[in-house]
Amino acid sequence: DAVPVWAEPEYDDDFGFASASATNLCEALAGCSRAPAAVLAVSPNYYGVCAGVRELASCCHSRGVPLLVDEAHGSHFAFHRGFPPTSLSQGADLVVQSTHKTLSAMTQASMLHVSGPRVCSDRVTRSLQILQSSSPSYVLMSSLDAARAHASEASDYHHDGEGDRPAGAGEQTFSRTIYASLEAKDEISRVPRLRVLRGEGVDPLRLTVGVSGLGQTGFEVSRQLEEEYGVVPELATQASVVFIVTLGTASADLKLLVRALREVAGQSDGPGRGPPWSQPSGLVLPSCGTQAMSPRQAFFAGHARVETSTAVGRVAAEIVCPYPPGIPILYPGEKISEEALEFLLAFKREGGYVSGCSDATLDTLLVVE
Question: Which of 12, 33, 163, 219 lies at a 20 to 30 A Cα distance from 326?
Fold first, then answer.
C-alpha cells in the first residue's frame, strides 16, 4: 500500500492561504525511514505564489527520488521572461499543467510533461492507458495545440527577439498583459485598507487583494463585486479576493475592477487593518492527524455513515477539504480528531466551502466500519 507522508505548508495569515514549503518538504523527506516513491508539490498555488522548486528538486534528486509538480496554474510561465521560472526548468521530473486555466485551451484540456531519466515515460504512457478513455476528444487535443500556438504568438520570445515580427497595434501580447496587470496592482495598492500580494516568485498575472482591512470577509466583498458591478472574482477567502488576468483580459476589464474595488473600499466603515484570516472566529488550521491505516485500506474497507457529532475517534473513509485553502483536514485512513471537526464546522459557519465529502452539509461523515 502507498502510505502518504505529509509536510506542513507555509501559511500567509494576511491574505489567508497556504503554499508549499520546500524546507518543510525536505525535512519530511529526510525523516522518511526509506526513500519514498516520489515527492508531490503544488507550485504555484491558486494565489500565484511559487514554491522553491529548485531547492526541492535538489533535495529529492540527492536521495534518488523523483519530483512531481502540480503546476496547474503555471501553464503560461514558459512564454515570457517576466513570469516565474517553470518547474521543468528548475529540475522537476514530472509536471502537469491545466492549460485551460491560464491559457486558451478548452476546459479539461491539460498537459503532462516528463523530463530526465528518473521517471520512465513508457511507464507513464502505460499507466495513462489504464486510466484514460480509448476514445480521446480530438476537439480538446486540437484546443491544446491552438492554445500553444496562441501563447507562442503572444510570447516575448516571438516579438522581442532580433528579427522577430513586431506586435500589431491591437494585438495582445504577454508583455502588454503583464504591464496592464502590474499597473492595476499599483492602483489597487493605493486604495486605503486594501493590500495587494506581491514579491519574488509571485505570478504577475494573479491579482490577490487582501480585504481584511475593510472589516469584511472576502466572501462578502466577492458578493458585492458581482452583484453591484458584474465583476466575478476567481476565488474568495476569509481575507482576500483573487482575480486572474489573461491574454483575453481587456484594459476596460481592469479599469472596471479598479473602480469597483475603490468604491467598495470607500463604502466600508471597517477598522484600519482587520485580524488575520485564520482568526476571525478563532479559526486555526489543525495539525496533521494520526494515520490509522493506508488510504487504500480505508477505501476498500466497509463504510458507515455517522452523525458528525459522534465521529470523533472514528477513521475517516473520505476526503474532507475546506476550500480555501484547499488542504484536506481529513483523508481516508486518518483518525478523526475533535480539533479537526471543530475547525471544519466553524469554517462552514464562516461561509467557506467544504469539498470532497459526500455530505456537503457536514451533518454526517463517512467512516470505516
Answer: 33
Output the pTM of the full model. 0.86
Find all residues with CB under 8 Å of 21, minimum gap 6, and list them.
Answer: 7, 8, 9, 10, 51
CA nearest to 222, candidates 211, 186, 281 = 211
- In 3D space, the residue among 366, 209, 219 whose CA is nearest the CA of residue 303 turns out to be 366
Are 316 and 252 contacting, i.e. CB atoms less than 8 angstroms apart?
no
The helix (H) or strand (E) run that includes residue 41 is strand 39-42
Cell of 163: 528579427
Q: Give the pLDDT confidence of 271-324 residue by residue, as tens digits.
A: 544 444 444 444 567 877 888 999 999 999 999 999 999 999 999 999 999 876
Contact 12/45 with Cβ under 8 angstroms?
no
**Which residues pair with residue 320 across a beta bridge?**
330
Cβ atoms 197, 16 nearer than 8 A: no
Low-confidence ranges of the chain (pLDDT < 70): 157-171, 270-284, 324-325
SS3 350: coil
How do residues 226-264 score in pLDDT, each as one tens digit?
Answer: 999 999 999 888 889 999 999 999 999 999 999 999 999
Which distant-in-sequence residues (6+ apart) come within 8 Å of 289 by Cβ? 330, 334, 335, 336, 337, 340
Task: Tell me the Cα Rg of the chain.
Answer: 22
Length of the chain: 369
Cell 479599469 belongs to: 255
Q: In 3-state terms, what secondary structure has residue 32?
A: coil
